[in-house]
TrEMBL record, chain A:
Coiled coil: none
Membrane topology, record value: Peripheral membrane protein
Gene3D superfamilies reported for this sequence: 3.10.20.620, Autophagy protein Apg5, helix rich domain, Phosphatidylinositol 3-kinase Catalytic Subunit, Chain A, domain 1
Organism classification: Eukaryota, Metazoa, Ecdysozoa, Arthropoda, Hexapoda
Protein name stated in the entry: Autophagy protein 5
Gene that specifies this protein: LOC106117040
Organism: Papilio xuthus (Asian swallowtail butterfly)
GO biological process, one term: piecemeal microautophagy of the nucleus
A Pfam match: ATG5_HBR
UniProtKB/TrEMBL annotation, chain B:
Any one GO CC term of the record: cytoplasm
Listed name of the protein: Tectonin beta-propeller repeat-containing protein
PROSITE patterns per the UniProt record, alphabetical: GALECTIN (PS51304)
Sequence similarity: Belongs to the TECPR1 family.
Alphabetical UniProt keywords: Lectin, Repeat
All residue ranges annotated as the Galectin domain in the record: 573-711
Length: 264, 1096
């Protein structure tokens, strides 16, 4: 059970200072727009936190582009909105942290081949919920999500959207419980990303064959048998290699119930 | 079944060849007739004996027959599986098995040797159906693969298995139950473990889980030895023997359900003592570790009459109660029946190192494992202190240390209020309830919120401002999860809300406590001057005067404004002056007189006192200052009313005109009152009685007030402004002292010290997880079985039509059955079955019955000719697992504790469950739990204790009072006890003679004593020189009875017997008994400690 509230709260409260700048090519006014500074929760998604920023820049761009979909890049690398913000930061700036995180805002030239379209927040919600469901299938064969009511699903989403820890965890707690006589999940929902952004997702059991708890180091040696000294980062911190996977999954998963770990 | 039957020894002299081990199995021998059992035993000469004719209907069997063994085999232990398979262990550490045990040949055919695990010797082995488990001398655990119990009689391979498999974990003992479930004793911590996850498919199971196995011991029989056990060389044998009792008990309970009653005749036994030793030997097969003195067996046995074979030779007269007609009747009054008094005084617990476990006939339901088999708490605790966790937390926290000026960064997500609603039921005072919808709205940044209660059709019932809630507590009944809210400004009654599920109730509880605490700016450790209180649900509440004190301070003065605008003064407006009207207090008013005003008056008055004339009415008898402006007489009259009689008037000329606006100020000075009208001094009035007796102000007449303001040199807090924060944990008593030491006692009498944290249990990690620890507590539930004698059928459970319920509470007025006794919530679980209490006060016979001539009458343990009724007490224990900001302090069980600080010194005195006085050494602010207990001899068993200013008073078990003489810095334990004159009861209670005390609380100059009848007496005139005080005073203004009283200086707080928390008003140096009680909080309290000195 995820009962270490102190860690949960610390992770929930993680925020990143971000400086948004409008792409020079898109500025149609003589006056240069001010950069837009904002503190963004690490656990959130860009479409949920960029409404104000978008309004701020709209009057500087050509009106014909005003309705087209906005997208962001960091150092020329388009940012995928369907990943949590904190994970994107860890992926691109984890090793050489520079705050504020300066991102460029675009309204034209949507990189269709790289990014998914995101016309509205419902798309984010659908994506978020489907990821939680996938995680629950891995953890409990999908039994928890299927027994929840629609309003519970809604509360998860609203909790994340409105940055309400208690609201979110009141429901998420149930997803983090172990079921049956098994102590621990069936599998740990985990995705490990290399620095080039390629993702590695495997079936990982939180326990060894003898019933003892599997720790992160064991996973690392399974995933990277030929490398030595692999470190994994999430939520902006290095995870000690002796952390049990079960605990890690319960406490350090993103709201989508997945552990998103970056190799560094 | 619940009795012993001695088996005749092998020889006339039982010491010639005693038994050293015995084992029972064979209840599932293939094709054998139902009820067949196999009993194998080992004698001290190494002979193997088989008992013939043992079955469930004849458990004692017929005779021993010798089974020959191979030469050079000295057998140490024998184990029989349910299918009759026999394994024996040799002293050399090797194992042999008996081949060919079948229904036709129960003693088998021949012995076969089994190879031991490599390079080790076995020390214990145990046979199950399809398994054999063993422990080797190096504490490793072994599992024998390939055993098939059902074909073991015909196949050597099935009996021998194929090989040893090592199981992780280090154990010193192992035992297999009838369905192959395995119990073991851990090597390092000597705890009892159970192997989880054992299924027919996976016989090795998954992991060892610690079983919560706290020992409960009755004070009446054996606490003396527990308390002294640390220094007692027999300690080992004590725990050993009590433990074997418990395991025996376990198997007995199981046997009740599956065995038929014995039909065989009892066997005469001439040598009962020897057989006691025999049964003891059976229990203790690892003989080398145990000190087996017959003496300790006799003295430490929990209940000799129940368990020793001495008195109950062969007789198995129904100990089990007959199934009662009660169980078929639906009982609406069922519920939580724990007997407070029993929980209070009779039971204690001790931590035990286990040495032996016997699964016997214990069949564990693996699908639904009992709660107490769970050790999830332990796993959680180890994570919380793990290094990697600290490393993670540390790095998470350091993420915030960035070199960026964050001031220009806006928040991405706007703070919005949120709402939460739920269907619930509103519980009325008569326990009926109605459906409603409750909805909580909370805005964190504005720090405001409301709780709305709607009717099912959506119409508003009422709306509460969350800031006005003064306490949130649980008030659940079994199956009905409830919370109660006290909102003094909104309603006099407690608002009780019942939720659909426990989870929902806990979530709401958590949210409400969190929000209301935020509103009041409370978190973490409360200040030292807090008042602590405990409710009957074990909730611990704390009121901290500090925030209120900081909030309204201005130049060392505290001001409180009263809402007077628009109030009708013609019929009188009265409001309480919480700090009385001591010198330094000021009352300011501004207002306007009506044009037709004839008279108005301002009374600074004492409390209303109940008077009984032809009917009960209330009256103010003390008015220290009466200021009466009389336009009709053209004068102002000042006067004082003492004991209902007016004194001499002082008259002044009229300062005001009709219809005039005015301002007025009454200042209390050392000599008297000064009245200032329209900023000019108008008159002075000398005190005739102390202004400290003033508790309220009354304004009455034809005028309108704009403002009224009361200011004082000390903080002004009325009960409606006190917010009681739930602190977490589960306790029976909490005692605090002026410099922040807080100790608690749980229902099982263990002592706890407050760690400074906040949260745990249903509050979860409300204030961070630091300083939150696992807690357990045990409560005893009691029901009484009543029977009436009938000339034809003897005692039966058929009473007279007028009789009490045949299953009842102690009074007989309430129906209580064992079947309908339920646990309060999911955090509780049973840790015992229903058992007959052989320690019921008054004495019992062999079967726990107490006799009397009729209900209700004094009960005695021995039946005499005139006895027509009998009763016996059944008890069952329940345990709660929770967390809270408390840690254990010492292992001694306590009844009462008192803490007092005198400058830098802190003394902690307590009474143990054995009734001894002890004090704690080494209690300092850095080590609040102290070092160890020092024992102080006392002539009588004690019940309660209180200390203040190095004076110590205690209450003896008969209600007598003592004080301790000769306490000094060098001799903190003092020299001897002196008896104090007993309080003589006044006319109020209509009883003659003295009434015993049951609790006390000392202040520097007085002692507040709670008497056994619930009345409170005050001993005044206590000083260092006269430690027993001078005189008794009785609180005569009310006929309320109380549960508890706590006092410090002039603060007296008490819990009324209906659970209402009260505070004594008007306590002064001249009137140490005070004048009246003020209601503080109407919740179900059982204990309060104001010894932090809330207004000091």
């Amino acid at each position: 059970m995820a009962n270490d509230r102190e860690v949960l709260r610390e992770i929930w409260d993680g925020k990143l200072p971000i400086c948004f700048q409008l792409d020079q090519e898109e500025i149609m006014e003589i006056q240069q727009p001010d950069p837009f500074y904002v503190m963004v929760p690490r656990l959130s998604y860009f479409p949920l936190v960029t409404d104000k920023m978008k309004r701020h820049f709209l009057r500087y761009i050509s009106q014909e582009n005003a309705d087209s979909e906005m997208w962001l890049d960091y150092n020329g690398q388009p940012l995928k909105w369907h990943y949590p913000i904190g994970f994107l930061y860890d992926l691109y700036c984890g090793s050489d942290s520079q705050l504020p995180w300066t991102l460029t805002v675009h309204f034209t030239k949507f990189p269709e081949t790289i990014l998914l379209r995101c016309p509205n927040k419902d798309v984010v919600e659908a994506h978020f919920m489907s990821t939680i469901k996938e995680a629950d299938v891995l953890k409990h064969r999908g039994q928890v999500m299927s027994t929840m009511q629609k309003k519970d699903h809604n509360q998860l989403w609203l909790g994340l959207q409105n940055d309400k820890f208690d609201q979110f965890w009141a429901i998420n707690r149930r997803l983090m419980e172990s079921h049956g006589e098994n102590e621990g999940f069936k599998h740990v929902p985990i995705r490990v990303y290399s620095d080039d952004g390629t993702c590695n997702q495997r079936l990982v059991s939180p326990k060894n064959n003898d019933g003892s708890r599997k720790v992160l180091q064991q996973l690392i040696s399974e995933l990277f048998p030929d490398k030595i000294e692999v470190k994994l980062r999430t939520h902006g911190i290095m995870i000690p290699p002796d952390t049990p996977l079960q605990w890690l999954s319960e406490h350090m998963s993103y709201p989508d119930n997945f552990l998103h770990l970056c190799v560094c | 079944m619940n009795s012993w039957c001695a088996i005749a020894p092998l020889h006339k002299d039982p010491t010639q060849e005693p038994f050293i081990d015995v084992n029972i199995g064979g209840n599932q021998i293939p094709y054998a007739s139902r009820g067949t059992l196999a009993v194998w035993a080992i004698t001290a000469h190494g002979r193997v004996m088989y008992r013939t004719g043992v079955s469930t209907s004849s458990p004692e069997g017929q005779k021993w027959i010798n089974v020959s063994i191979p030469p050079n085999c000295d057998i140490k232990q024998i184990s029989v599986g349910p299918t009759g398979l026999v394994w024996a262990l040799l002293w050399t550490g090797r194992a042999i098995i008996r081949k060919g045990v079948t229904k036709d040949c129960p003693t088998g055919e021949a012995w076969l040797e089994v190879k031991s695990p490599p390079e080790t010797k076995l020390s214990v082995l145990s046979v199950g159906v399809n398994v054999v488990w063993a422990v080797s001398t190096d504490t490793r655990v072994w599992f024998r693969k390939g055993i098939d119990g059902n074909s073991a009689g015909n196949s050597e391979i099935a009996a021998m298995g194929t090989g040893w498999l090592e199981i992780n974990g280090n154990m010193v003992h192992v035992s297999v139950g009838i369905n192959d479930q395995v119990f073991a004793i851990g090597e390092s911590n000597k705890n009892v473990y159970w192997r989880s996850g054992i299924t027919p498919a996976e016989l090795t199971g998954k992991r060892w889980r610690m079983v919560q196995a706290n020992m409960q011991l009755s004070r009446t029989s054996s606490t003396a030895s527990i308390i002294s056990s640390a220094s007692n060389p027999k300690h080992h044998s004590l725990t050993m023997l009590t433990e074997s009792n418990t395991s025996e008990l376990k198997s007995n309970i199981n046997l009740h359900s599956s065995w038929e009653e014995s039909h065989s005749a009892p066997i005469e036994n001439t040598l009962p003592i020897k057989s006691a030793r025999e049964s003891r030997a059976k229990k203790s097969n690892n003989v080398e570790t145990i000190d087996l003195t017959g003496k300790s067996y006799e003295t430490t046995l929990k209940n000799p009459r129940a368990w020793s074979p001495v008195r109950s030779v062969g007789s198995v007269v129904g100990m089990e109660a007959q199934p009662d007609s009660d169980s078929s009747v639906f009982d609406t009054d069922s519920g939580m029946f724990f007997d407070d008094e029993v929980s209070q005084t009779a039971w204690g617990t001790c931590d035990t190192s286990w040495a032996f476990v016997e699964a016997g006939g214990c069949s564990v339901d693996t699908v639904q494992v009992p709660h107490w088999f769970s050790d999830s708490q332990n796993a959680f605790n180890s994570d919380i202190t793990a290094k990697w966790r600290f490393s993670i937390l540390e790095s998470l926290k350091s993420r915030n240390n960035v070199d960026v000026d964050l001031s220009r960064y806006g928040l991405a997500i706007e703070e919005k209020g949120w709402t939460r609603s739920s269907e619930a039921r509103l519980v009325n005072s008569n326990n009926s309830s109605e459906d409603c919808i409750i909805s909580l709205y909370w805005h964190a940044t504005e720090n405001t919120g409301t709780l709305s209660v709607f009717q099912p059709d959506g119409t508003i019932k009422f709306i509460l401002n969350l800031g006005e809630i003064s306490s949130v507590t649980t008030c659940s009944e079994p199956g009905n999860p409830r919370i109660s809210l006290v909102v003094p400004n909104q309603s006099k009654d407690v608002i009780k809300i019942q939720y659909m599920t426990e989870m929902e109730q806990e979530e709401w509880m958590n949210v409400l406590v969190d929000i209301t605490s935020q509103i009041h700016g409370l978190s973490g450790r409360p200040s030292n001057n807090s008042v602590w209180a405990v409710t009957s649900s074990g909730d611990i509440l704390n009121w901290d005067p500090l925030p209120a004190r900081l909030n309204c301070e201005e130049n060392g003065r505290y001001t409180k404004e009263f809402q007077v605008f628009g109030k009708n003064m013609t019929s009188g407006f009265s409001t309480a002056l919480h700090n009385n009207f001591t010198p330094g207090c000021i009352l300011k008013m501004s207002g306007c007189l009506f044009d037709d005003v004839t008279r108005f008056h301002i009374n600074l008055q004492g409390p209303e006192v109940k008077k009984q004339r032809h009917k009960i009415e209330t009256e103010v008898t003390e008015i220290p200052f009466h200021f009466n402006v009389r336009f009709d007489e053209n004068t102002v009259v000042c006067n004082t009313k003492v004991s209902g009689n007016w004194g001499a008037e002082e008259r002044h000329k009229l300062p005001l005109a009709k219809g005039q606006e005015f301002s007025m100020k009454i200042v209390s000075e050392i000599k008297g009152f000064t009245v200032v009208i329209n900023d000019e001094k108008y008159c002075s009035y000398k005190h005739r009685i102390s202004p400290e007796t003033i508790t309220s102000v009354l304004v009455q007449g034809q005028l309108r007030l704009y403002t009224m303001e009361y200011s004082s040199t000390s903080v002004i807090i009325g009960p409606d402004e006190m917010f009681w924060r739930m602190m977490g944990g589960y306790l029976r008593k909490v005692e605090c002292s002026q410099n922040g030491f807080v100790w608690g006692i749980s229902n099982d009498h263990r002592a706890w010290v407050y760690t400074g944290g906040w949260g745990g249990g249903i509050l979860k990690g409300i204030g961070g997880n630091e300083a939150i620890h696992a807690m357990t507590d045990t409560q005893t539930y009691c029901v009484y079985e009543n029977q009436r004698w009938n000339p034809l059928s003897g005692y039966t459970s058929t009473g007279l039509p007028t009789d009490r319920y045949m299953w009842s509470d102690i009074t007989g007025k309430l129906k209580r059955t064992r079947e309908h006794t339920k646990l309060l919530n999911r955090h509780w679980h049973w840790v015992s079955e229903w058992m007959v209490d052989y320690n019921t006060p008054g004495g019992v016979d062999n079967e726990g019955w107490q006799y009397a001539t009729d209900f209700p009458a004094p009960y005695h343990g021995k039946k005499i000719f005139t006895d027509c009724v009998r009763r016996r007490r059944w008890y069952r224990k329940a345990q709660i697992n929770t967390e809270g900001p408390w840690v254990r302090a010492g292992n001694t069980g306590l009844l009462d504790i008192s803490i007092s600080t005198n400058g830098k010194e802190t003394s902690v005195w307590a009474v143990t469950i054995g009734g001894d006085a002890i004090y704690r050494t080494g209690v300092t602010p850095t080590t609040p739990a102290g070092a160890h207990w020092e024992h102080v001899n006392s002539p009588q068993a004690l019940l309660a204790i209180s200390t203040c200013n190095n004076i110590i008073w205690t209450v003896g078990r008969k209600g007598e009072l003592y004080y301790r003489q000769g306490i000094s810095e060098e001799n903190p334990g003092g020299s001897d006890w002196k008896l104090i004159e007993a309080p003589k009861c006044g006319f109020t209670y209509g009883q003659k003679g003295s009434i015993g005390a049951k609790a006390i609380s000392l202040t520097k100059t007085s002692a507040w004593v709670l008497l056994t009848n619930g009345a409170i007496a005050v001993r005044t005139g206590i000083s260092k020189e006269q430690q027993d005080g001078k005189q008794w005073k009785f609180i005569s203004d009310c006929e309320q009875s109380f549960k508890h009283v706590s006092s410090i200086d002039r603060e007296i707080w008490a819990v009324r017997s209906d659970g209402v928390l009260q505070r004594r008003l008007g306590v002064t140096a001249e009137n140490p008994a005070g004048t009246t009680w003020q209601m503080v909080l109407p919740a179900n309290f059982i204990h309060v400690s104001a010894r932090g000195g809330c207004f000091a």
